[in-house]
Every structure is written in structure tokens, then in C-alpha cells.
Amino acid sequence: MVEIQLHLICELCLQGRGCCQNETTQQNDKRVRMTDAARCVRRASHPTAVLGIIFPSNDRVHDGQTTSQRRLTKRICVAEPAPGPTHVLPIPAWLDCDHVGLALCMLKNVSSWNFDMFLFNRLTHGNALACLVSHLFHMHGLLKYFHLDPMKLRKFLVLVQADYHRRNPYHNSVHAADVTQAIHCYISEAKLMRIMRPQEVMLGLLAAAVHDIDHPGVNLTYLRNTGHYLARVQRGSSVLENHHWRSTLARLRESEIFDHLVVAERHELEACLQSLILATDISRQSEFLSRFQLLMEHGALDMTDAAQRHLILQISLKCADISNPCRPWHVSHRWGEKVCEEFFRQGDLERRSRMPISSLCDRYTDTIPTIQIGFMTHLAMPLFEAWAQFMDTHLSRSLLSNLVRNRHRWQQLQHSWSGGGNGCQQDSITPRSWHNTFLVRW
Known about the structure:
Layout: H1 2-14, H2 25-29, E1 33-34, H3 36-39, E2 53-54, H4 67-75, H5 100-107, H6 117-123, H7 128-139, H8 142-146, H9 150-162, H10 173-187, H11 190-193, H12 198-210, H13 220-225, H14 229-233, H15 239-255, H16 263-278, H17 285-297, H18 306-321, H19 329-352, H20 368-391, H21 394-416, H22 431-441
Antiparallel strand pairs: 1-2
Helix pairs in contact: 7-9, 7-10, 7-12, 9-15, 10-12, 10-18, 12-16, 12-18, 15-16, 17-18, 17-20, 20-21, 20-22
């Protein structure tokens, strides 16, 4: 980043717009600063991302670090692990001192399904993903088991968190943290904890944390219609998911987190991680659900088989990815509003560009309750019914009951919703149409 800043300063000097060696004190104090979009140059997948320069800046460069960078460096300092069998950090990474106590209290209940990720994100000053994953890695003893370097893990998590677009209402680092906490709840249950190997636990947490990295906040149809580079570079199926995987691989290489492993082990981990990320493609839900249900119907699930354990991990990640309707209402309805706002923002971009507005993206004809009811009924319900049949635990039954209750709450809101006309009434279209509509939108 410092090199980029110096390069830009020299360019300004050549243009006669000011020089880093100007005679006046005021001009000596000015520094070129990148905007939020330009600071995170990896975020170029965002459809409205632009590079810009603003000055003057109050951020002085001292020893190669800006003020904000020094604050981040201070914030990621981690206390030594507390003695004991679990090796959980007494002060998790990325916590500011004024909120350490409250955040620690929340992390004591990190295995609770009522965990409020929005509150945790506020207490960690927007660092929920990095803080949560760091804590869970210590909690599951993964650093010790795989001999991971804590500094490399920290670097990897900082890179991953920075690659999520904060401007996205839904597909951001808070969503990734929420999915990570959800899959932690699943694999912490006795039925899965007995069969999951440490490698599979680590892969599940990593896949949840990175599964939407660098998501542009729009769907593939929009990217193709606008000629976005992602639609040209990524060919074939699961375009966005392949982009998430390639972005993840770049961060793994940059952080060198697995460089101490032999090549064969590293390639095996990366192949499994890729398979998990690609499984989050919602257009493949019928494929995975059919395989899962077929194995259960024939009693052919063998948890000693690594391939079938991997399938269970894929299903659990898919459940975690769309688990928002199964959260308590005060959290679930907020997620519902955020995902619909992301849909509507795409519709606003399409309207301004005089493009056809995609399904579920018109804020003047589509309503949040109708979108949520359709999603819960035709996508979430079949998946969580199968999951409850497989797990048959208190948590899995609670997920299903929360889903039913939340759908009823949205149905009550639907009658009094004042968001304008409704162009996609649930009763007027078939379940298959709803299913296809969501697959295209996602």
C-alpha cells in the first residue's frame, strides 16, 4: 500500500499538481490517500467499485504504516493462550479493550443457536469473522493438531475479512461469520463430533468463512448483462463459487498458512476445500439433496466412509449457508431484510442502466414477506426437513420449528405490508417456478 501511495505522489509531481518535496510546510504535510474502494484493491469484483484519489489526508506515513494500519496492528495483538486442555484465548484476536468483557461473554455461548452475530460484530468493531474463526480454531485445538502458525492464521483471516465487501447488505463478512458459527453448532453435536476427523472440522470452518469471499453483491445474470470481467473469466457452471474458491486459494498462498505441510497433504486439503465451496452453489441443491435423501432411504449412510462424511459436511455447509430463516425471529427477520435489500439494490442498478429488472429485485413490485415465504417454503424447508431426519437432535428439531414459526410471522406481515403492489404472489405460481426463480436470482 505504501508503494502505491508513493507511486501516486510521484505521478502528481510529474503533472505539476504538487510534489512531495514542495517548499511549503502545508504541501509537505499532504499525503495521497486511496478511497475505501481503492484501499482494498482486491475488491474489484464489486459492480460499482471505482479507484479514486482524495487529498489532503491526515494519515501520515510513519515507518511504512498509516494511522489506520497501526490501529489495526494494535488491535490484532493477541494475548497468550490460557493454560488448560482447550487452549482457548483469554482475549480473542481483534478485540478492542472497551468491549473485551462483553465479547468474551458472548464467546462463552458460541455454541448456542441464539448467538447474535450482529451484536458480536458491533462488539468486535466489524471484525466478527476474524475474531470468531480465530477463537474456534483454538477452541477445537486445530492450531496444535496441525501445527499452524498463529501469525499466519491471523494474516489469512485479515486477508479474507478484507476481501468481503462491506457495502453488500447481505453477502459480507458478517454473513460469513454467521455461517461459520452455524456450522460450528452442527459439528459440535455429539452425532457429528464422534465421526468428524480434525481435518474435516477445520475444513468445515474454513469453507464457511470463505464461501462467499469477494462476492460482488449481484447475481450472474447481472454480471453477464453488464459484461463484467467475472462473467468472461469464469466459464462453465458455478461461476461465482469458482471465483470464491480462486480468491480463497490466493489468500492461502499469500498467507502461507499450509506451507509447512507436505505437498500431497496440502493438495488434499485444497481439493476438499474447493469441493465444499462449490457445494454452496444453490443451483445444485436438488443434486445434493437427492443424493442425501437416497442414502437415508436405503440406510446406506456409512460414517466410516470418508466420501460419505464429506457429503455430510457439504450438506451441513449448505444448511448453514441458508440457516437465517431458522434463527430466532429477532435475528432472522433482520437477515431477511438485508438479503432483500441486496436484491433490490441490484434492481436499482438495472433500472438506472435501463436493463430488464431481474426476478425478486424490484423494490416497487416485490415485497420482503413474499420473497421470504417463497424462499422458506421451497428451498429452506426441504433441506432442513432432510437434515432433521438425519440428525434427529434437539437442535435440528429446533431449526425446523423456528423455520415454521418465522414463516408464519412473515405470512402475518404479508397481509399488512405496505411496500406497494406485489408482482409475484406466492399463491399464483407453482413451487417449481419459485424454485427456479430463486436459482436464477442467486
